């Protein structure tokens, strides 16, 4: 079961709405004209990759055992095998909760720090722990534990990168113009 990403407006999106469209956060819906609604749609569309990646990152976490008493052994084994405490529930709780509100960059940075800290043998060992948990929970007995774990870990890492990449400042008119000039002059 995937956790739902709450339909809150992220801080970055709210800042862009206020800056680009001169929309105060307390503005009532009745005061919005068609042009402002279209502007909101454009700004929201610009952020949809980040929201989708954040939702996927949370979905990957949701596939693992919950950080409850029943899941303690998994999280302990993951910590020992990976050699990193970055992924312990106590260390990712705040970024996970912010991600549920649409702010996935803190979690993405934490994930990339964890993966970066792992040595190749630790990554393999973490993949085995993750794969075993996924095989047990997803009932995928026909797939090898190691393969599933490696795929999950690779997806987790790449999704974290997508969250950070989508968060880059794309609302810079000078940057967009420089990009267009560079590509039209080739």
Task: Report what the structure shows.
The chain is mainly alpha-helical. The protein has a domain of 116 residues. It is built from 8 helices and no strands. α2 runs antiparallel to α7 and α3 runs antiparallel to α6. The longest helix has 29 residues. It is elongated, with a radius of gyration of 20 Å.
List SSEs in N-to-C order.
HHHHHHHH
Low-confidence stretches: 1-9
The chain-level structural class is: mainly alpha
Strand tally is 0
Measured as a percent range, the helix fraction is 55-70%
Question: Radius of gyration in whole Å, from Cα?
Answer: 20 Å
- Strand fraction band? under 5%
Overall mean pLDDT score? 81
Distance between the termini: 48 Å
Instruction: Work out the helix count.
Output: 8
What characterizes the major β-sheet?
Answer: none
The coarse overall form would be: elongated
